[in-house]
Design a protein that fits this description.
There is one protein chain. The chain is of the alpha/beta class and about 300 residues long. The protein has one domain (about 35-290): 3-Layer(aba) Sandwich (Rossmann fold), CATH 3.40.50. Helix content is about 50%, strand content about 15%. It is built from 9 helices and 11 strands. It has helices at about 10-35, 40-60, 75-85, 140-165, 185-200, 225-240, 245-260, 270-280, 280-295; strands at about 1-5, 5, 65-70, 90-95, 110-115, 130-135, 170-175, 205-210, 215, 245, 265-270. The strands form 3 sheets. A 7-stranded parallel sheet has the order 5-4-3-6-7-8-11, with helices on both faces. Strands 1-2 form a two-stranded antiparallel ribbon. α6 (about 225-240) links the parallel β9 (about 215) and β10 (about 245). α3 packs across α7, α4 (about 140-165) runs parallel beside α5 (about 185-200) and α7 (about 245-260) crosses α8 (about 270-280). The longest helix has 28 residues, at about 10-35. It is globular and about 75 Å long. The N and C termini lie far apart (about 65 Å).
């Protein structure tokens, strides 16, 4: 059969074969990432399993915290987790504007409006807060190159320096999968540079998280990300720890880690480890079954 100059009997089978080959290659890529071994699986799963049993001890220690980037998608999920767990005597939400908080948020949460361009003038908001969570960030499309670097690099590091000087002991940063200070890509290079700078600030404990593509229903309109999430939704279902991370998973991992005693001063959690630390990874269930079999 021929339509105009197209030979349908040749083109359709060839096109179908091409689509099949590409699908198999893409599937293999995600499958390979899904089955990659995470060396700290046992530690991560144990921390997740012991999280709730650590809550009472952690509460009794009287910690106070701050959150940078609390109006973002990860920040909003983190507020929900902390509000439910009631781990801190005080949680200071530091941002450029006040927002309406959910009615479930308790009186221990207070918002502080600061000018990040003059953050040194607002250093008192960090006073006595021993625990910090940073999910601060913007996009190149929204803020331009200079604006992106200013927010994701400068604001983060200036905040960390002030927080440490005012008593912060444990600093947790939400970075990005692929972060590398030597990357040719602005986004991953900036994230990598921030990670390296934080490591030499010598916090008592620093925890860095590198989630994959964040899966959530953004209130902010980002058409490109929206399309990407739609395309990645079946991938996240079939290969949940390969390259995607729901924002609530990141928040759970942050909370489960912060209450856990740790012998490490620096911790780096890649995407698969974040899923394990959240307590939602199937790998943790598999590990428990294996340990039970060995004990028998």
């Amino acid at each position: 059969m021929q339509v105009l100059w197209f030979r349908c009997d040749v083109i359709i089978p060839s096109l179908s074969l091409g689509v099949l080959v590409v699908s198999l290659l893409i599937g293999s890529f995600f499958f390979w990432h899904e089955i990659q071994h995470e060396p700290d699986t046992e530690r991560n799963c144990n921390m997740a399993e012991a999280a709730q049993s650590n809550w009472e001890r952690y509460r009794a220690e009287g910690h106070q915290a701050f959150i940078l980037g609390y109006t973002g998608e990860v920040g909003k999920e983190l507020i929900k987790e902390l509000a439910a767990a009631k781990l801190f005597k005080k949680v200071v939400l530091i941002g450029r504007r006040q927002v309406d908080l959910d009615t479930t948020v308790g009186p221990e949460f207070e918002q502080k409006v600061v000018d990040f361009e003059k953050l040194e003038e607002h250093s008192d908001v960090f006073e006595g807060l021993d625990t910090g969570f940073c999910a601060l960030g913007t996009t190149r499309g929204k803020s331009g190159v200079k604006g992106f670097v200013r927010v994701d690099h400068d604001y983060v590091l200036i905040s960390a320096e002030i927080a440490k000087a005012r008593g912060c002991k444990h600093f947790s940063l939400v970075s990005s999968q692929g972060a590398n200070k030597n990357s040719s890509m602005l986004y991953t290079r900036t994230k990598g540079q921030v990670e390296e700078a934080l490591k030499v600030m010598h916090f008592d404990r620093i925890s860095i998280y590198r989630p994959g593509v964040l899966m959530c229903d953004r209130t902010e309109d980002r058409p490109g990300e929206k399309v990407a999430r739609v395309l990645l939704k079946p991938i996240s279902y079939l290969f949940p720890t390969a390259i995607t991370t729901p924002t609530e998973i990141v928040a759970k991992a942050l909370v489960n880690n912060v209450v856990a005693p740790s012998e490490r001063t620096q911790e780096l959690y890649e995407n698969k480890a974040i899923h394990q630390l959240s307590g939602t990874s199937k790998a943790c269930g598999t590990q428990s079954n294996q340990e039970s079999s060995k004990s028998k």
